[in-house]
Amino acid sequence: MNVKIFALIIPLCMGLLSCSKNDDYNLSSSIFIEDTDFPGLPKYSEWGYNTFGAYIDRSPFVSTNEDIPGKVVIRNDTLQLILKGSYKGVFAEMIFMLGGYNPRSHSQLTALNGDTIDLKHSPSKVQFRTKTAFYNFDIIEGELIFKKVQRLYVDEEETKCIVSGYFQLKTFMNDEPVAISQGRFDLGIGYDNFFNLSLN
Amino acid sequence: MSIRPIALLLIGLLTGSLLIQGQEGLPSREQDWIIETEILLPNATLYNDIAIRQNPVSSTSYDNGTVTYSVGGLMLGTRWKWQNPARGWGLSVGIRAKALYNKITGNMERNSDFYYLRYYTDDATGVTKFARINTINESMLLLALPLEANYTVLRTELFDAFISIGTEVGYFTMREVKISFRDNTMKPYESAVRKSIDHPVNNLYGAVYGTVGAAIGQSPRLIGEICLPGIYFSKKYFMLGTAQYFTSFRLSLQIPVFKSQPEK
């Protein structure tokens, strides 16, 4: 092929790649706008800012820039909402396991829109783990609210699902009752963080 | 504003006006043609309901990105001025053409020269649409008729200092909104995007203002003025934001056309 054609095609491809990379960066990065009423936690939003946060007693458990903050994994008719972040300076993750949900793609997450899940009485589980500890929570009371789930179109192309809501629960850690309060999340769920393992 | 600067200003004005009284050797009547230009700086705030998603600033920052909302303009005008130099008073009327703009641009960090504007959301279907926007620019042309009174408070060998108060009324004769999309395939959806940023505007214009300035030279005179915050009669002259106040810097050339004999 003519060298001149290469000279035209290569910069064009680089340009296209850089555009898509930049778009991914903007929608997949975390934008942490601190809630002045609840220091250490992100302000509640519905923009797909890829943040979450909650107080575990007094200490914030929040998303970071390093780890992908949220993943949705579907396994055996159970939807796992995985929140990955930092608690007391170390990596930690909280997993909400919600029975009876089986969306085939991230677009179908809109079925959760407006749902409030009673974590005590529904077939749900909540797990929490750090590098050194694992808790399968025995829930005293609690709820997970999907306040708004939106299918996001960017320039008229469907890209992600924005999943936003609140959570709070009371449970035990090392036999001591603790409250997980003021929980909020605003996550963009798309190709890179949605996995339906039931389809395999 | 605290009491002290106001007291100093009043003392200055009083002293100046006493110096002006009874100035001899100056004509009692003079008419001038003024050509003027002005940089306009409205103090505008972006409407809260223009739904813009914040962009990340940098990979290391935990801060939020923002867009830049800028408002400004340029004026060209002419006035006819009647004045009594001996007493320091003057009155002028004229016409002014003002080109104004207000613009929302994305932050330029990490080559993100665009921002996401939410232009559609439907809770029933759970669909939200963003458009990637480089800039939204509203340009306007305003024709205004000013009425201005001024009073010379201080005369020195080098310059004369004066204060003025004025009002102007006018009409926005042209108003244009341009949306620059990141992806030109969004052009067919421009009207939907435009609808999401639309706000009612007032095309009848009015404002009051005061200025302080200095004039140098005799014929012609070069005048520089700073507008103390002027007040718009309405907040709704711009489609993208509200503005209550403005400041400006004005430069004028005052050409004497008629002078009576100096007073004795």
Explain this structure to me?
The complex is a heterodimer of chains A (200) and B (264). Chain A is mainly β and 200 residues long. Chain A has two domains: 1-30; 32-199, no CATH class. Chain A is 13% helix and 48% strand. Chain A has one helix and twelve strands. Chain A has one helix at residues 3-28; strands at residues 51-56, 59-62, 70-75, 78-87, 90-99, 116-118, 124-130, 134-136, 141-154, 157-173, 176-189, 194-196. In chain A, strands 1, 2, 3, 4, 5, 6, 7, 8, 9, 10, 11 and 12 form a twelve-stranded mixed beta sheet that branches. In chain A, β10 and β11 form a beta hairpin. Residues 6-22 of chain A have low confidence and may be disordered. Chain B is mainly β and 264 residues long. Chain B has a domain at 34-48 and 67-104 and 137-259: Porin (Beta Barrel). Chain B has helices spanning 3-20, 190-197; strands at 30-46, 52-53, 68-84, 89-105, 115-122, 127-155, 160-181, 204-216, 221-232, 241-259. Chain B has an eight-stranded antiparallel β-barrel. Chain B is elongated and about 80 Å long. Classes of the chains: A mainly beta (200), B mainly beta (264). At the A-B interface, α1 and β9 of A face β5 and β6 of B. β9 of chain A pairs parallel with β6 (127-155) of chain B.
- Could you please say which CATH topology of one domain in chain B applies here? Porin
Uncertain runs of chain A: 6-22
Measured distance between first and last alpha carbons of chain A: 42 Å
Secondary structure category of chain A:
mainly beta
Q: Count the E strands of chain B.
A: 10
Low-confidence stretches of chain B: 58-64
**Rough outline of chain A:** globular
The number of strands of chain A is: 12
The two chains with the largest interface, and their residue counts, are: A-B, 26 and 30 residues
Q: Quick check: average pLDDT of chain B?
A: 86
- Proportion of residues in helical segments of chain B: under 10%
Largest sheet of chain B: 8 strands, antiparallel, barrel
How many domains of chain A?
2
User: In what range is the share of β-strand residues of chain A?
Assistant: over 45%
Estimate the mean pLDDT confidence of chain A. 87
Strand content of chain B: over 45%
The CATH class assignment of one domain in chain B is Mainly Beta
Fraction of residues of chain A in helices?
A: 10-25%
Report strand order across the widest sheet of chain B.
Answer: 1-3-4-6-7-8-9-10
Separation of the first and last Cα atoms of chain B: 42 Å
